[in-house]
Amino acid sequence: MMGHSHHAPPSQLIMARSKWNRKRKAEERAAKSGKDPRDKADVNAAGYKLNQDYSVAKTSNPRMEAYYSLLGLHSTRFDAGAAASFVPCLADEEKTAERDRFMSSLRAILPASFRIDRSLDASVQNKLIREMKEFVGKETEVEIELPTRSDAVGGKMNLMNTADAQSDTAPQHVGGDNPVVTTIKRKIAPAKPIPFISATESDGSTLTLGYQLSVDRRTLRRNPSLSPLHEWLKTHTDCGHITRQETVSMIPPVVLDVKPGMAVLDMCAAPGSKTCQLVEVVGGFANRDESDGNDGESGRRCLEPDGYVIANDADAKRAYMLVTQLRRLQSPSVFVTSCDGQYFPILDAKDDRGTEKEGMFHRVLCDVPCSGDGTVRKNPGIWRHWNQNGALALHPLQLSIALRGARVTRLNGYMVYSTCSMNPMENESVVAELLRITNGSLVLEDPRPRMEGLIARPGWSTWKVLREEKRGSAKAKKDHKKKNNDCQEEGVGRKEENGECHSPPKERQDPNNAEEDHEEISERSPYHTLPYIAPESWDETTLRERTTSLGFVEYNSHADVEPEWRRRVRASCFPPTEVEAKEFQLHKCLRCLPHDMDTGGFFVALFKKIKPLSRDATERMNQMARESRGGIEVDAHVNREGGNRVENNDVDSACNVDKSDDTINGENDVTMIEESEVEQTGDEPKNNCDNLEPHHAAMEEEEEELVQKAPSGKVGMNHNKQKKKTDLSNEDFIPLEESIWPPIVDQFGLSPDFPKEQYMARASGEAKVLYFISKAIKEQLIDRGIQNRITVINSGLKAFERCSIQDARAKYRISQEGVQFVVPHMTKRLLVATADDFYKCITGGFIEFNVLSKIKDLEPGSFVVALEGHEHDLMKKLFLVMWKRKNALECFVTKVEIDGIVSKLRALGFVSPMASTLMDSSSHSIAPAADESGAVQ
Ligand SMILES: C[S@@+](CC[C@H](N)C(=O)[O-])C[C@H]1O[C@@H](n2cnc3c(N)ncnc32)[C@H](O)[C@@H]1O
Question: What is the mean pLDDT of residues 736-760?
Fold first, then answer.
């Protein structure tokens, strides 16, 4: 997957192009507004424009605030006292104070956080932890920016960390006569540990691997006193040692309690921060002795993990983003797929006798698409677009994905359901309905005992159900109108999911209905510009008057819901009965609110599967999938008499069932409206709930490149229809032709135990790349025909690449990405170098022969250099893929990988390039640890 380091990456061209695009767009915007695009003085630290009306609209939403006030979001507060628990707010003042804490946190910039890779070599990991301790422990003076304008609630707009409410120094105004930003100086410790992101050492001690910064990324960039930390973060992010990830986003993988060797499904994985976290553990090694690094039999360390993670996302373009994100880990334990999670193929486990048992995944993560109102701190567009109906629209999709997740979880396995929404329509109501449908197969578990230092509120057992009168963005209206017109041309009303058309709801027939043009409303409506004022009284009547005046409709039960709204406000949106509530124990769910830990808002539920799903539950699952597909029988092969057992043998994944054209084209009217409404929840709708911070601008460019490379026919939600079940298309992993091997085996002297069957290609004939596929993935997924049922985007590591260089004898060279899986089998062209020589090889450019003088006799072509003393330490991967030309040597390792290798060398004590101080000064040339042909002795 990696490009060659010494050639200009094609992504540079794309980077230039997209920079140009951004500039052009900024200029166009500026031309419209009559402003100079370079004028940045009116943009505050959060990136919000400080035009008063705009900032008011952006950091306040009276409908959202009124909704959550009525729902009782501010009725409990955290009591940090001895019991450290949540207690009810009894007096109105307490509720007001709690609400203010919540609101000022929502308006504060989200502090950045990150975690150290759990799967890193212990020496590197310890070094990073030691370095981090410096940053955690040492207070340093920083300049923090604050805007001077008052915000919508009439108080100071708090754009700094909520913990830093008071300034230490007198504010300095910037921005001339009309100051828009003040700066204050404060002494802070730049980071604090996240206690629940940790690893336990074999001696029982705990290593903290997660850290939350006290400042946002802009402050980090701008303060010279923080530049050591900033540089540290950049370097280690680039080489994959750390991942920047929101604190709350780290919770689900920890709650899932994954272990090395497990089969894990990440149902909605892109952009992949949680997947990385899962792979770091699952791709590790269980019950292996770390100390000697040998597996005894072959004398070489067995490196191949037994576990794997399937990283799936319905959106193929986003699945390609996953590939980029996961590439940094260079793990063979990932299988990236693209399929609508509602129809994820039913994969079951086989026991020793070959009998199928329900579900094959030890762990399933359903981090479902959601309205993302918990991410408003970093997605300020949500302030403007928040819409209760969007949450209602997502509810059935979320439920359907979770049901599928429950089905593929194995007995005694665990499933986590999570959202970055605070809305019970997307959280507790989905969990309750899941428990209702599965009727005893799933139970909720409380993960708190395992989550040291986590401050999470209990899940709710009851809530109010409301919808909004206003519906749809301008786009939704347009799409919707168009469809209705199509239907009306047919002489009927709106097209229903089963393909029939029915009359539109009354409010849409009213030509004077304000809903007809959302944009117009936002100009006319006072609610979009007027500040929210905290309620004078917190009694329910006052709060209800407020929601009603803002256009909400509240229901006591599903029976009260108007017929035309019943598909949106479903029975499952309503809270459980008292008897159910007792049984469900929804308080075990985790509700993270922004002001409790200075994070985003988040929701997590942990389920244990204790029984197979009943026939009824399976039928409901299929029914929901059918509904979502517009009434098409997705599981038509299911034998209704046979129940689960027959479905277990399902070969035709619903993913591949062809749909009639009109469903493929999205002519499911309800779905289309729902998607549009979901879209209006943020400026970047699909990213509303991503908690991943792009770790490097270059990475974004690379993603763009990858997306462009996405094979046609695999992009989009409906791509599966294009795959034929029996067709091994070019993009599938296929076994290699036997004729490919003899020259490779000969050139590198591959030993007889070299597992040829684990090398696959994605094209027949002389494939460009030969991938190393882990045994577990090959046997459990590929050999079982998963590629016939689902679109596979990526898996394995590049082990060999076809040579384009003329002076090569063999057609393939070794690739740095998978070199550690080839090295144990190489008896030729593997050289051992001292640290000095090793360093010389990675300093770039062409290397003179006199550096590696002992390889003079080696024929031109690909070879590998191993660091002396680490030849068999496959985990550390201190190997360099090199190329011998007639007169020089070349290192085929990317800059990012070299940074990683240098960092490992430093952790091992080699403090600087040419660090002979720490080495035996007698060993300054390449060691002759190879025989005539270059084989290691
Ligand atoms: C909350 S984001 C996932 C974030 C991700 N787990 C992470 O930690 O980086 C939801 C993802 O679900 C995907 N998605 C939306 N509908 C889906 C569906 N029906 N099945 C599977 N994935 C879906 C979206 O493309 C989006 O990438």
Answer: 95
The residue ranking higher by pLDDT, 280 or 659, is 280
Kindly state whether residue 413 falls inside one of the protein's structural domains: yes
| Residue 203 CA to ligand 1 centre (angstroms) | 38
Cα–Cα separations (whole angstroms), residue 464 to 65, 69, 73, 512, 547: 15, 11, 11, 30, 12
| Boundary residue ending a domain (640, 665, 691) | 691
Strand, helix or coil for residue 245: strand
Nearest CA to ligand 1 atom 9: 272
- Whether the Cβ atoms of residue 838 and residue 847 lie closer than 8 Å to each other: no
Domain that holds residue 3: 1-39
Alpha-carbon span 717 to 732, nearest angstrom: 18
- Distance, CA 366 to ligand 1 centroid (Å)? 8
Residue with tokens 């993960």: 447
Residues 821, 684 share a domain: no
Binding residue per annotation — 122? Answer: no
Beta carbon of 318 within 6 Å of any ligand 1 atom: yes
- Same domain, yes or no, for 686 and 818? no
350 annotated ligand binder = no
Q: Say if ligand 1 is within 6 A of residue 128 CB.
A: no
Mean of the per-residue pLDDT values of the chain: 73
Find all residues with CB under 8 Å of 277, minimum gap 6, and list them: 115, 118, 243, 245, 250, 253, 254
Lowest mean pLDDT among 444-448, 707-711, 824-828: 707-711
| Residue from 420, 589, 841, 891 carrying the catalytic annotation | 420
For residue 255, being part of any structural domain is answered with: yes
The mean pLDDT of 274-292, rounded to a whole number, is 70
* Cα 673 to Cα 483: distance, rounded to the nearest angstrom: 10
Say how many domains are in the chain: 3
- Residues 534/101, Cβ–Cβ less than 8 Å: no
Report the separation in Å between the CA atom of 272 and the middle of ligand 1, taken as the mean of its atom positions. 9
Confidence of residue 876 (pLDDT cuts 50, 70, 90): confident
* Percent over 70 (pLDDT), the chain: 65
The CB of 340 under 6 Å from ligand 1? The reply is yes
Q: Would you say the C-alpha torsion 739, 740, 743, 749 has a positive or negative sign?
A: negative
With respect to residue 353, please indicate whether it lies within any of the assigned structural domains: yes
Structure tokens at 421: 């929404």
Asked whether the predicted pLDDT for residue 659 surpasses 50, the reply is no
Binding site membership of 416 for ligand 1 (Cβ less than 6 Å): no
Q: Could you tell me the distance, in angstroms and rounded to a whole number, from the CA of residue 290 to the centre of ligand 1? A: 36
Give me the phi and psi of 97, to 5 degrees please: -65, -40
What whole-number distance in Å separates Cα of residue 518 and Cα of residue 521? Answer: 5
User: What are the helix and strand counts (H, E) for the chain?
Assistant: 29, 35
Q: Is 332 annotated as a binding residue?
A: no
35 within some domain: yes
Q: Is 340 annotated as a binding residue?
A: yes
Cα 69 from Cα 194, distance rounded (Å) = 30
Is 499 in contact with 631 (CB distance < 8 Å)?
yes
Q: How far apart are CA 771 and CA 795, in angstroms?
A: 8
- Indicate left, alpha or beta for 287 from its phi (over 0: left) and psi (-120 to 50: alpha): left
The type of residue at 28 is: E
DSSP symbols for 23-34: HHHHHHHHHHHT
Judge contact between 342 and 404, C-beta under 8 A. yes
User: Nearest-CA neighbor of 237 among 198, 211, 258, 208?
Assistant: 211
Residues 687 and 823 in one domain: no
pTM exceeding the 0.95 threshold for the entire prediction: no
User: 416 with 252: CB under 8 angstroms?
Assistant: yes
Among all chains, which residue has been given the structure tokens 């992993």?
733
CB 338 near ligand 1, within 6 Å: no
User: What distance in angstroms lies between residue 125's CA and the mean position of ligand 1's atoms?
Assistant: 30
* CA pair distance 504, 492, nearest whole angstrom: 9
Whether 366 is a known active-site residue: answer no
Mutate to test the pocket of ligand 1, among 255, 280, 313 (most ligand atoms within 8 A of CB): 313
- Report the alpha-carbon distance of residue 463 to residue 67 in Å, rounded: 11
